[in-house]
């Protein structure tokens, strides 16, 4: 279990308990990571603007803008919720969260397939995507698991159990199918194992096993042709010039033609004339690259870099291993999605349907992302306080 | 490890209250550092890639984005019309419906080409070939088929959803109301070939353009074609046009007025056809069958200024077959040897021995050399056995008895000209005076006339140098024999000339040694009828030969069409008193073929205006087939009532 010894003599939380200010106890100003919060807000604002630019031509022109603004508000509430309690209280519930998530992942198959995939649970005003939640559930469950083992996964049995925790939802999501999130969870697993105490030889074995699984998947035809094409098309865009290759080509043209300062907000020709597909979701970065140019793209990457840097700080200074591991899981999730998404739009990563956190249009992704930011803030806030 | 520790993220003790054993904390730091390095590396890659795409290759991508956005459509300029000298329109344009594609837009749907292939009745391969061939930016429109039916266009418009990137349009194409008339002079159009495109690089030609392949259409292609206009549209990803960005109106080509007179041209063509038909019913004793009359041609030229009034070649072809691209079947027919190559303009491409028509030149040369005069006496006993010819005797086509040079021309006596030729040979051995071939060259033989039509042949004037060069691989054939000069004297041997060249020779004689370059383009006019270019009247050469000699030859040539002349029977009833005709018959012997019938003349002989040359290949003797055709043409030229039946003159 946790190490509570260090919490005795130096604890600002106790000082504040004396002042009796409840709010301050929950959000001690000194402990709140303001750069992280500002970055997240800036990213959300940036994303909302880009979504508006990408969808202005639609009718009604503010449909996506309004919805995204609503999601942002919702996400901010969720972020506040995520930061409002002592994160360590989650630990006992991680199993329940995990089981509920698995249940939701099964539920999706009861809903009719949308463009060939069972990904959404329809809630009327918006469609909830449990696989987004699954990423978080896996992070929390693995973090609990690793913290319980004091970040030392000694035996192979333990290692396999960790794999199992991530593997179960991965399989369900793969069947949906949603290759992007399946891969995201896998990478989160790898990242957390790396930091969370797996041995080198176990990691090597995992690598070898992964290659075997990939080979088997392709051999057995478990990947649908379009999935395989999309995965490989970035190497040779004319392999599938009709769909994925075309999208990729148009995205590259959009970004490349942005040059240093871009064509100006709302003035992207590739965007406005609908050459970029899914320009408000998967390919939102193309809009950034085209309209705001190299400077805009670098500004966006810089925001992400600051966010990740602050998250690193939080992982290192977390009071306990659970906090560290949650932070690590979130870091890996954000960074993986960002690299794969941006990499896709500039033709160096496969087309996997992974969205750009904070920027791409979509409620589930945004809410989960902000909940994660809330958790990071939470971990930072409570680095001086012992768990209850 | 030390390096990792150095760059690892440090935590100040007052930043946290965490408690972990140092070993665990160190391990965690190390692992997070590895993760951090991976992340930094990923950022560097993204940064580098963005730098490369946006800063280094930004221009290239910009161009592609513009190519995406902008569809360039060309506005075809109507080609200039072609008129005869009196303004009768022989070639005009009409708007044809076309089917074109925008490669970038059909690229998304493989089925489109398949559907298009079925609709147009064209092979998928051919459609793909046309698209690939136009190495244009992917938003340029590529013409697939011209002159399609209205039903095809309607179908495409009504099913545009099934035909993304397929455009139905209008393009002006040629129309020939007179079909075959002057087909060889006008020439046909075809799609520009890759080789021609390479040759015309930098000029206003692009793949898929129509270009003049032969005749005036080829010579004056640039003047006729005008300038293509274009407009640029902004289009969205589905090919819907958003707005027009720019527009440049097309400028139509210049109209070309020919020197050809449509009425005379029609008469000449009909006359040739009629004489060919007559010849095919005439028996040729030597080959014991009817004449084949494989081809015929005629030239009518205003010898004062070199204007070609008519130029005809038989067999001919219908220009309308070439409209919108000739079908493969029709093309094969036109190139089948059995059909005697109707596309060839025989008036400038048939190289034949000029035969007795050349005797005029031999006679002028002999008199100029002062070796003979018009009254020099000869005796024709049908056979020539002088000197070396005792062993290889040469024969005349008749037995003329006692005869002078003047009558030798009138009656086309070969013996007289063998004598003249043999004298030229003896003098050339002694290097006295000028040899006969130089006189042939004086009269512009052995070189093309420079008429403004493509594919004109040079003909051939033999000389000892030519013979050596021609037989450089067979030394035993290089010797110049007396027979070479003697044969040349009667226009046979290795001497070859086109009908146009012989017309040019007689124009030169009629003009007293002045040669005015023949031409077919009279002027080029813009659409308002304003003349912008007028053909130059170009005097190419003036011979220094005594005018008296030309006067004597003129007399002799006039004798050909009357009295004992070789064409006298044919000109019976022709008002020679008002319109004296000077001409010469010729019967060209070609090895392995029936003789070609020549007649070249000019009129009025006292004030020469027109020269007429007629050749019927494998058509008989000169007076027999060609001379009657020439008479018909003269009747037309001088507005005479046509004689009912024209008699063939038997003889050379």
Topology diagram in text:
The complex is a heterodimer of chains A (388) and B (652).
Chain A: H1 12-19, H2 22-26, H3 34-55, H4 63-83, H5 94-107, E1 121-122, E2 127-128, H6 130-148, H7 156-175, H8 179-195, H9 200-219, H10 225-232, H11 244-258, H12 269-272, H13 284-317, H14 321-345, H15 363-381
Antiparallel strand pairs in A: 1-2
Chain B: H1 2-7, H2 22-56, H3 58-69, E1 70-75, E2 82-83, E3 89-101, H4 103-106, H5 110-120, H6 124-133, E4 142-146, H7 150-158, E5 166-175, H8 183-186, E6 189-191, H9 194-199, E7 210-212, H10 215-219, H11 221-225, E8 229-235, E9 241-248, E10 255-258, H12 262-279, E11 283-284, E12 289-290, E13 295-302, E14 307-314, H13 328-334, H14 346-349, H15 359-368, E15 377-380, E16 383-384, E17 394-395, E18 401-404, H16 405-410, H17 414-429, H18 436-442, H19 464-470, H20 482-489, H21 499-510, E19 514-516, E20 521-525, E21 531-534, E22 539-542, H22 547-559, E23 582-588, E24 596-603, E25 610-617, H23 622-637
Parallel strand pairs in B: 2-10
Antiparallel strand pairs in B: 1-8, 2-3, 3-4, 3-5, 6-7, 8-9, 10-20, 11-12, 13-14, 13-25, 15-18, 16-17, 19-22, 20-21, 23-24, 24-25
Helix pairs in contact in B: 12-23, 15-17, 15-22, 17-20
Written account of the structure:
- The complex is a heterodimer of chains A (388) and B (652).
- In chain A, 65% of the residues lie in helices and 1% in strands.
- Chain A is mainly α and 388 residues long.
- In chain A, strands 1-2 form a two-stranded antiparallel sheet.
- In chain A, helix 3 runs antiparallel to helix 15 and helix 11 crosses helix 13.
- Chain A is globular.
- The two termini of chain A are 13 Å apart.
- Residues 1-21 of chain A have low confidence and may be disordered.
- With 652 residues, chain B is α+β, with helices and mostly antiparallel strands.
- Chain B folds into 3 domains: 2-56; 69-183 and 229-258, Penicillin-binding protein 2a (Domain 2) (Alpha-Beta Complex), CATH 3.90.1310.10; 262-320 and 343-637, DD-peptidase/beta-lactamase superfamily (Beta-lactamase, 3-Layer(aba) Sandwich), CATH 3.40.710.10.
- Helices cover 35% and strands 20% of the residues of chain B.
- Chain B is built from 23 helices and 25 strands.
- In chain B, strands 2, 3, 4, 5, 10, 20 and 21 form a 7-stranded mixed sheet that branches.
- The model of chain B has no long low-confidence stretch (mean pLDDT 90).
- Classes of the chains: A mainly alpha (388), B alpha+beta (652).
């Amino acid at each position: 279990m946790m190490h509570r010894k260090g919490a005795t003599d130096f604890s600002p939380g106790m000082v504040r308990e004396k002042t009796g200010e409840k709010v301050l106890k929950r959000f001690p100003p000194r402990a709140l990571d303001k750069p992280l919060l500002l970055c997240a807000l800036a990213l959300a604002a940036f994303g909302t603007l880009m979504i508006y630019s990408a969808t202005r031509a639609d009718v009604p022109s503010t449909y996506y803008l309004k919805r995204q603004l609503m999601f942002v508000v919702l996400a901010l509430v969720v972020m506040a919720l995520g930061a409002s309690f002592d994160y360590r209280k989650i630990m006992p519930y991680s199993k329940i969260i995990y089981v509920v998530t698995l249940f939701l992942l099964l539920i999706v198959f009861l809903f009719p397939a949308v463009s060939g995939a069972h990904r959404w649970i329809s809630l009327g005003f918006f469609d909830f995507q449990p696989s987004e939640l699954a990423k978080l559930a896996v992070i929390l469950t693995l973090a609990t698991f690793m913290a319980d083992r004091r970040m030392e996964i000694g035996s192979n049995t333990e290692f396999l159990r960790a794999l199992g925790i991530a593997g179960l939802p991965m399989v369900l999501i793969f069947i949906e199918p949603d290759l992007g999130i399946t891969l995201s969870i896998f990478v989160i697993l790898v990242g957390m194992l790396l930091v969370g105490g797996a041995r080198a030889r176990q990691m090597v074995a995992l690598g070898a096993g992964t290659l075997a699984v990939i080979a088997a998947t392709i051999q057995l035809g478990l990947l649908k042709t379009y999935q395989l094409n999309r995965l490989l098309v970035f190497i040779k865009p004319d392999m599938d010039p009709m769909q994925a290759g075309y999208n990729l080509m148009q995205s590259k043209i959009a970004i490349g033609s942005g040059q240093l300062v871009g064509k100006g907000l709302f003035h992207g020709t590739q965007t406005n004339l609908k050459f970029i597909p899914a320009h408000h979701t998967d390919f939102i970065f193309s809009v950034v690259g085209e309209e705001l140019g190299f400077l805009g793209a670098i500004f966006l990457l810089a925001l992400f870099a600051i966010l990740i840097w602050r998250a690193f700080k939080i992982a290192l200074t977390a009071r306990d291993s659970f906090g560290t591991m949650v932070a690590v899981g979130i870091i890996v999730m954000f960074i993986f999605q960002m690299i794969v998404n941006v990499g896709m739009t500039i033709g160096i990563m496969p087309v996997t349907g992974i969205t750009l956190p904070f920027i791409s249009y979509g409620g589930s992704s945004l809410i989960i992302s902000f909940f994660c930011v809330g958790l990071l803030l939470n971990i930072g806030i409570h680095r001086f306080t012992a768990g209850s | 490890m030390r390096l990792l520790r150095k760059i690892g993220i440090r935590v100040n003790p007052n930043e946290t209250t965490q408690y972990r054993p140092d070993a665990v904390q160190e391990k965690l730091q190390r692992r997070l550092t590895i993760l951090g390095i991976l992340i930094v590396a990923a950022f560097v890659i993204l940064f580098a890639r963005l730098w490369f795409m946006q800063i280094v290759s930004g221009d290239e991508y910009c161009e592609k984005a513009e190519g995406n956005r902008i569809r360039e459509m060309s506005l075809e300029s109507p080609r200039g019309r072609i008129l005869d000298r009196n303004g009768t329109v022989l070639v005009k344009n009409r708007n044809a419906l076309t089917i074109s594609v925008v490669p970038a837009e059909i690229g998304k749907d493989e089925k489109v080409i398949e559907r298009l292939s079925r609709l147009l009745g064209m092979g998928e391969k051919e459609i793909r070939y046309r698209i690939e061939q136009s190495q244009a930016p992917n938003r340029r429109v590529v013409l697939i088929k011209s002159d399609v039916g209205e039903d095809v266009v309607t179908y495409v418009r009504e099913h545009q959803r099934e035909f993304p990137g397929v455009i139905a349009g209008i393009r002006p194409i040629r129309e020939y109301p007179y079909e075959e008339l002057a087909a060889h002079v006008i020439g046909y159009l075809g799609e520009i070939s890759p080789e021609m495109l390479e040759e015309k690089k930098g000029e206003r030609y692009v793949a898929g353009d129509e270009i003049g392949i032969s005749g005036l259409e080829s010579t004056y292609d640039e003047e006729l074609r005008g300038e293509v206009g274009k407009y640029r549209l902004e289009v969205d990803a589905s090919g819907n046009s958003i707005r027009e960005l720019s527009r440049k109106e097309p400028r139509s080509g210049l109209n070309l007025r020919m020197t050809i007179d449509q009425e005379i041209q029609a008469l000449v063509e009909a006359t040739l056809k009629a004489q060919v038909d007559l010849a095919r019913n005439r028996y040729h004793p030597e080959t014991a069958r009817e004449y084949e009359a494989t081809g015929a041609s005629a030239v009518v030229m205003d010898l004062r200024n070199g204007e070609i009034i008519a130029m005809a070649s038989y067999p001919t072809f219908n220009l309308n077959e070439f409209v919108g691209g000739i079908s493969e079947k029709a093309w094969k027919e036109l190139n089948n040897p059995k059909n005697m190559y109707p596309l060839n303009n025989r008036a400038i491409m048939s190289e034949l021995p000029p035969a007795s028509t050349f005797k005029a030149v031999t006679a002028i040369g002999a008199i100029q050399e002062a070796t003979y005069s018009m009254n020099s006496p000869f005796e024709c006993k049908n056979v020539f056995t002088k000197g070396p010819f005792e062993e290889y005797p040469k024969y005349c086509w008749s037995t003329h008895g006692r005869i002078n040079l003047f009558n030798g021309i009138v009656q086309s006596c070969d013996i007289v000209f063998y004598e003249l030729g043999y004298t030229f040979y003896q003098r050339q051995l002694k290097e006295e005076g000028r040899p006969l071939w130089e006189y042939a060259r004086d009269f512009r033989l052995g070189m093309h006339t420079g008429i403004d039509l493509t594919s004109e042949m040079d003909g051939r004037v033999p000389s000892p140098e030519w013979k050596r060069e021609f037989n450089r691989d067979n030394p035993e054939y290089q010797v110049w024999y007396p027979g070479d000069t003697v044969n040349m004297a009667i226009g046979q041997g290795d001497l070859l000339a086109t009908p146009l060249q012989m017309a040019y020779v007689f124009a030169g004689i009629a003009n007293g040694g002045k040669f005015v370059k023949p031409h077919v383009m009279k002027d080029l006019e813009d659409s308002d009828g304003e003349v912008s270019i007028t053909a130059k009247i170009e005097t190419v050469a003036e011979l220094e030969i005594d005018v008296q000699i030309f006067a004597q030859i003129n007399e002799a040539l006039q004798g050909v069409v009357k009295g004992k002349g070789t064409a006298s029977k044919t000109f019976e009833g022709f008002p020679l008193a008002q319109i004296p005709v000077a001409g010469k018959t010729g019967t060209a012997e070609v090895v392995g073929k029936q003789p070609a019938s020549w007649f070249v003349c000019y009129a009025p002989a006292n004030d020469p205006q027109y020269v007429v040359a007629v050749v019927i290949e494998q058509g008989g003797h000169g007076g027999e087939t060609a001379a009657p055709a020439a008479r018909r043409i003269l009747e037309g030229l001088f507005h005479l009532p046509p004689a009912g039946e024209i008699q063939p003159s038997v003889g050379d």
